[in-house]
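tool_call: predict_structure(chain=1)
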Amino acid sequence: LDISFSINNNDSISLYHNLQLVDSIAWVSDVNSIGRIHEESNEITSLLKPTPGKKNRIESFETNSSIVLNEINTVGSDLIEIYNTSEKQYTFSKDEWTLEDIQKSKQFFIPEKTVIEGNGFLVLSAETDTNIQNGTNIVKYKSKEFFGLGSNDTLILRKRGKIVDIKSWSEHVNSIGRFPDGGESWEANLPLSFGSENQKMKK
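tool_result:
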């Protein structure tokens, strides 16, 4: 029996029996695992841990974190901004925090002793000559094995393996970010403002 699949982002898969459609599932960006919350439910989630051949397990979440994703750029050089909603300075511990590009197999560990000021920003960049103002701390990563942010992609911020924050998009973004910084709402097509307050585009 030769069964071949080529599953992509923004894709779907259908199950047929005697040429009759029995079930189908669709997604708009790459997923680690998408499926039913449990075997007797029709509710679908893309936040599952991969468990082929076993019962589905939903990802664990870390709630009430003051450290959040704040701005993302995928056009040209990848840029990722993290924001500290607390007024207190925060120091990252060893092997505690990771960033995960869902299209890549490796997680990027935020280096220990990295500091983010209270109500401040931390920027991750692959460019050695990144020009970020206001004294913002910058973490440089050189390898594309961690990030290659594209269209139909998802970025996950984890603490000790639990999801702290997650953001998906369906096409390349020049700048997508929270407005105001650290807020609940995300805005598309913002002016690039890595290391400083997010601003809406002037009309």
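agent: The longest strand covers residues 20-27. Proceeding to next step.
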